[in-house]
Amino acid sequence: MTEVTGETSMAAALLCLCALAWLLGGRHYGMRRARLVLAGGAVVATGPPSWDETLAELRRLHDRLGAEWWALAAGLLLGLLGASVVPVVAGAAGVPVLRRVRLARQARRLRERRADAVIALCGALAGEVRAGRQPGEALLRAAQDSGGLGEAQAAVVAAARFGGDVPGALATAARQPGAEGLLGLAACWRVAVDQGAGLASGLDRLEAALRAERDQRADLRAQLAGARATTVLLTVLPALGLLLGSAMGAHPLHVLLHTGPGLGCLTAGSAFEAAGVWWTVRIMRQAEVV
């Protein structure tokens, strides 16, 4: 009876995967044919899409939906293979968690790009000032070249062009994540304008300090690579265990999802897995803060 159920679940999973591939391929083929006809092309595709086109369609689907939805797809597949709703519920519960992880990663990358743009802005502004331009004009040219002001660039450019409060506009722009270095630029600007100090020399020191801080963060991330590898290993090990058990003919999905001891082991293992990943991530965050 167990073998019949397993074969039925496997057949249902294969049918679902084939239907998904057919839908994606047919949709892509129809769109490609429509583009060729509307463009007036002489060659019209008559066969199914190639493997590269199917991969491109899957990549576009991945970018549009987000990586977190693959957790639900994996839960559906495991639910079909194991004839249980537990993997489906777990996959659905993992979607918001993975979305938070993806958004946090995107925010970190945006913050790093903005910090690099601020460093480039300081260097470009120092070069423009040394070239003999006035601070306002130099800031306008440097802001156009570097883009380090982000969403507040219009306000800073307007203040520099019309003689407004440039340090105040820079301080407002520094509220963006990753643009904290603009506070130092505002201080250099205020000192140079009020006391007549050299703006270029202050910008050079600020750029050097920001570069040193960025290099320190990069070195810290390199030192934490081992902890990140441990987190990935903790995440992948259960899947490797399931694959190994299936290869040995132990039917781990049936044991975990349809027996009392298996459900207990699944609950305890999931709790320990979540605790291990949480603890590792917490250690890395504390190290980054320190």
Would you kindly provide a brief summary of this structure?
By secondary structure, the chain is mainly α. It has helices at 2-38, 51-65, 69-82, 86-130, 135-146, 153-161, 166-173, 182-195, 199-223, 225-247, 252-258, 260-289.
Description:
This is Membrane protein. It holds the Pfam family T2SSF. It is found in: Cell membrane. The model is unreliable at 1-15 and 19-46 (pLDDT under 50). This protein folds into three domains: 1-65, no CATH class; 109-222; 224-290. The protein is mostly helical. The longest helix is centred in the middle third of the chain and has 45 residues, at 86-130. The chain is built from twelve helices and no strands. The protein has helices at 2-38, 51-65, 69-82, 86-130, 135-146, 153-161, 166-173, 182-195, 199-223, 225-247, 252-258, 260-289.
